[in-house]
Amino acid sequence: MAGNIKYGVFPNPLPDAEGKTTYQVRHMPDGTMDEKEFLAHLDYHHTYNTIIMKSSLTTLRNEIIEQLRNNKRFRIDGVGTFQMRVGLKTKYDEEGNPIKPHFTDPNKITANDVEVQGVSFTPDPSFIKALKDRTSTRNKFGRGPAGRNKPYTREQVVDFLNNYLQKNHSITRKQLQYGLNITEYRAQKWLDELTAEEFSKYYGKKQGNTYIYYRYGWEK
User: What's the pTM?
Assistant: First the structure.
């Protein structure tokens, strides 16, 4: 049975050439399936040995890391390709403020100035095709109004933040935005308001071009 795309419609931040507002659609995910839930799903719906599956996932993770460390891309047929993403290392002054890398002479960049900044993933075309074939463009859930902002109370946002930070220790504006299915503006507004409170339990720290938010005493 085909799945149904859940999406929201949002205005683009800049108008078009005629000064008119244009709109985009974004996927509105219903949470995240973690490894524990995945194994429980397999145990309920299939006959796989979940102990072997858990071991296989650990082996796969370690092998991907090993091959990326060897400066290779890692391809899984029918799934996609992983590749290491590197960039210039952010340095900090004596007060802990980030200093943006600035080089005018390429010959002055050495290995000490380079760091791993993430992993890129390029899905296999057959993977995208399979997803399209098994997904319906009919929207079972009903489209939300353009630029919709689901109204949350402060208590609900704090509960979400605390649950997220207990597990992940930090959060970005984008993670809050997608976690609550709200707009970029509203997510940033919540973070600004909560970190500016007189006895705030949260604070933000800039890393590169991104602010990372923490709860005092829960950092790792």
Answer: 0.58
